[in-house]
Predict the structure.
Amino acid sequence: MNKVDVPVFDGMKGYGRTGVFLLWLALGMCTACTDYEVRRMEDEAERQITICPDSARTLLEDAALLFPASDPLHARWCLLSGMVEDEMRKNGRYGHLLPVNEWLRATACYDRKGTTEEQAQIP
């Protein structure tokens, strides 16, 4: 019986570092796109709070689906969610309270990086 040399696939030898780099680059780009989209939705929600708090709450709920966002964006989301709920309560409608873990994350972020005004708005 004669031996036949069969080429053996040895994986991606030599491409490991490049593959890892490309993976991290793709993940970084997705995170940047997500942060941009969350920021855009938060800006629109902030404009809608006094005009139509229901629309603002819907925008913030949609933005929550795009998390995990960066800590400052998440803290701003918590602040805006509280403002929407306050506005809805003024109009006699009741919404959802912010979960404790979300509030703690926002408080920690504003304690580290927030302005005094932001720190005062999240007691």
Remarks:
- The chain has five helices and no strands.
- The two ends are 83 Å apart (CA to CA).
